[in-house]
Specification:
With 510 residues, this protein is α/β, with parallel strands linked by helices. The protein contains 22 helices and 18 strands. The strands form 6 sheets. The chain has a 5-stranded parallel β-sheet. It has a 4-stranded mixed β-sheet with strand order 1-2-4-3. It has a 3-stranded parallel β-sheet with strand order 5-8-9. Helix 7 packs across helix 20 and helix 19 runs parallel beside helix 21. It starts with a strand and ends with a helix.
Amino acid sequence: MLAKVKSAGLFGIDGYVIEVEVDISSGLPSFDIVGLPDAAVKESKERVRAAIKNSGLEFPLKRITVNLAPADTKKEGPAYDLAIAVAILLATGQIPHHPLIHSVFLGELSLDGSIRPVHGVLPALLSVKDQIRSVVVPLHNAPEASHVEGIDVYAVSSLNELISAFKGETAITPYKRFHGFDGHADNESLEDFADVKGQEGAKRALEIAAAGGHNVIMIGPPGSGKTMLARRMPSILPELTYQEALEITKIYSAAGLLDTSEGIIKVRPFRAPHHTISAVALIGGGKLPKPGEISLAHHGVLFLDELPEFKRDVLEALRQPLEDGKVTISRANGTAVFPASFTLIGSANPCPCGFFGDSSKECTCTPMQINRYLSRISGPLMDRFDIQIEVPPISFDELTGQRRGETSKEIRKRVNKARQIQLERYKNEGIFYNAQLNSRLIGKYCALNSAQRKMLRQAFVSLNLSARAYDRILKVARTIADLEGCQNIEDHHLAEAIQYRKLDRRLWMQ
């Protein structure tokens, strides 16, 4: 007796169709699963056996062989339980042939026959949607599966419910398709810039960063508001488009971090890993590659607080993804590519004690200690921060004043306006915002007059800037001009962009 049904597997965030073949023959009772299964897949034997019995069905006391094809790719997780159970019941004639049998089956079986949700449904289905017509998923996974166009989604909560549908005892209809997307939905729950006292210069820098997708580093003493400012960055970023939301949801689903009740991420992510994080956890990896923090921050913010406390190799691993907007993880059994287009915000104290340059508190660090502390952030990494600012301590008057700053909503209006200008400008260039400009496009869209070139030359020489810093100054100047609605970069736009590059030279040359 032989039966075949389909399921889907995941490598990184790319899915592929898996054919679940079940052969039942005479011999001593056994249950074997082949096709490079991991421990979780092997353990499905006990879950499937108990689920079939507890659903009032007969589990065959024969020789059962399950093959997960293609056999040369590693299979992991409990998502194949449902497909294996359906194939066994089909092979033993306990369920009839039904159009639903040609669906892809995904789901983990509980011992009582109920079907539990699994990870990676959305990315798997998006990858194989051209090869399938319908899918059967756990009820809790139906919201995310409904975002895949072109396939019918059937949601079931138990094995008995599915068997009744096969037998025609109950009708099963496709899950209601997703319609519409509101990127504004959860923005009201975000922390607001109006709560931040003072620090107008830092707020201005973060507004520019949000408008152009630029990376920012903030240097300042403890308690000056660096973390408070960074955590409010998502509240001024442009609302997610539906396509961006799908990309983020794919990553979170593959990582097992998706709230299945929502089915889609509606707010730009904000990730703030602790400084003890490993390079694999930050960048991604593992035997079967999983997305790291930089991919979980895709289209959002990655905040590295106390930047010099991170391990050197961890920070250096950021350099390539910051340039490419993606990370490639190569393993013996394949290569996975994870998107990693994020805004990096770093913060650091100016010295180990934190009070170097503070007029109100004395710094107890020696020049050597200060230099050793700041040199933990390498020059090449520092060069990748488009905007570098000092965040001074807050005065008592600023802290206790009744004046309320601009709200995030007001700032976001200006950011959205600038982003719309960029979207229109780059609609034929394949990019979306200024931070993505390459050298060719910088020459095309960031042209300077002779006086501005002279100004930039003086800054280039006096600050000992690199070619990368030169490009990033022009990108930031372009964003400042966009915030003011100017078609060309003016002198004061360029001057402001230059002053955001003084920090690395001044601090690292103490």
